[in-house]
Structures are given as structure tokens and as C-alpha cells.
Amino acid sequence: MSNDVRASELQTYLDRLLAVGEFKDYGPNGLQVEGTAVVRRLASAVTASRAAIDAAVEAGADALIVHHGLFWRGQDGRLTGWLAERVRRLMAHGIHLFAYHLPLDAHAEFGNNAQLGLRLGWRADARFGEQDLGFIGDAGAIGDAAAVARHVAQALGREPLLLPGDGRAVRRVAWCSGGAQGYFEAAIAAGADLFLTGEVSEPQAHLARETGVAFLACGHHATERYGAPALAAHVAERFGLEHRFIDIDNPA
Fold first, then answer.
1. What is the dihedral of CA 65, 12, 70, 235, to 10 degrees?
2. Could you tell me where in the chain the CATH 3.40.1390.30 domains are found?
3. Mind listing the pLDDT tens digit for each residue in 113-124?
4. Which runs of consecutive H residues, i.e. helices, occur in the chain?
5. What topology does CATH give the domain 5-100+226-245?
6. Whole-angstrom Cα distance, residue 205 to residue 133?
7. Which CATH number fits domain 112-223: 3.10.180.10, 2.60.120.260, 3.40.1390.30, 3.40.50.300?
8. Taking 60 as the threshold, does the pLDDT of residue 204 lie above it?
């Protein structure tokens, strides 16, 4: 038997827990679409895609917590096409949409980077990069970059793209989930022997060759599958709600 919680109470708790006011972000964090007054069932997903929304409807969810919401800086503000269809589905079924982007990446316990580190057996002892989003710590006795890549593939269920650097033993590993390839130089400056993120762009291949620091691109979705369900599970336990994680596969 689940409890009834007002959506405004959930919003206040989530906003404070994730310290949303401390971040400069690419879109609004918090409640993005308002649904019915009370929440009994929570769903979580990485992205507020139509497939995730439809699965939340099927699960009878009153609220959906995601990392990637619907509204972004520089976006055309008109509700047309695919965006209108997603909003229409949420509103037709009275589902609240809560989206937390950079605050969810950064959170020390429920964030994407903290949860990714748990699955890889890495514990951060420092932060780096813009807004301290990057995590860095000791790699343990894994070996060189190729050994780390095998370890990551087993943990995440996906083969990463490896830029091996100079083949050094990996003692310090840095990571930042999603599209954080631009943090590579900051990771190098922070003393990393290997940097892990979701995506890779053309410049990182040259930097890996020239600096000797290895680079692992493991998939945007694959590195950000863990924050939203961890956060939602915590909220569900605190408020006595039901929770279901909706994992919509994404090769990107």
C-alpha cells in the first residue's frame, strides 16, 4: 500500500536534495510538466522519451523522474511535433515530469557519476572541471588502459571505444558521465592516467596520443543509466511510494 504525497512536497525535497540553485545548466531543473495533485507511484528513466512516457502510463505512474527532460536552452519554445506529443501524453494521464540534469550528474550519493563509480568499484577523492562535475580517484590494481576497458565492458555490458594513450599503468582514473569529452583536458591537468565518459569527439584522439593519457568512450546512455533510478528509489523509500525504473535502450 503506497502513500499519497503532494507533488509540491516532492518538488521541494528534490530541489533541496540536489541543490539545483547552485548550477548553471542548459535547461530548467525540477518540475517541467505538472500532473495530478498527489503522487502514489513513481517511475524513473534516463530520458523523457515517448517510449519512457508510454511505459510510465502503462505502469500507472503519477510522476516520472528523468535526467534528460523536455526543455533546453536555445530550443524553439513552440509545442509542436514530437515535443507536443510527449507533453500531450503526460498531461492526458496527469503525470508530473521532474527532470534534473547537471544537479543529478554532480550529487555525491545519487548522482550519475557517483553511481557509475559504484558499479566500476571506483571511489572519488577529488572533483575537477567546470562546476566540479568530474570525479577522480584511485583505479586500484586493474592494470593498463586495455585492462580497464575490459573491466568497464563487463560492468556496463557494452564495449567501450578505447584511445589507449601511451600504455602506462592506470593508477588515477577520472570520469564524468554523458557528453563530457570536453573535460578531457581538465582530467589530464588533474593527474588522471585515464578519462572515462560517454562520448568522444575528434580532438580527443589527438590529445590521447600527445599526452599519453587514455580515453574511454562508453556511451552516453550507458554511463547515465544509474542516477535517475537511484534518486527515485531513495525518494520512494522516504515517502512510502512505489517505484519502477524504465530502461529504454539507446545505442548512443
1. -10
2. 5-100+226-245, 112-223
3. 999 999 999 999
4. 7-17, 50-58, 81-92, 102-106, 112-120, 145-156, 184-189, 202-211, 220-223, 227-239
5. 3.40.1390
6. 22
7. 3.40.1390.30
8. yes
pLDDT in tens, 38-66: 999 999 999 999 999 999 999 999 999 99
C-alpha cell at 21: 540553485
Encode pLDDT of 100-113 as tens digits: 999 999 999 999 99
Percent of the chain that is helix, strand, coil (3-state, to 5): 40, 20, 40
Residues paired with residue 111 on neighbouring β-strands, in sequence order: none
- pTM of the predicted model, to two decimals? 0.96
Give the three cell numbers for residue 193.
592516467
Torsion of CA 225, 226, 231, 236, to 10 degrees: 90
Distances (CA, A) of 182 to 67, 100, 104, 203: 20, 21, 19, 9
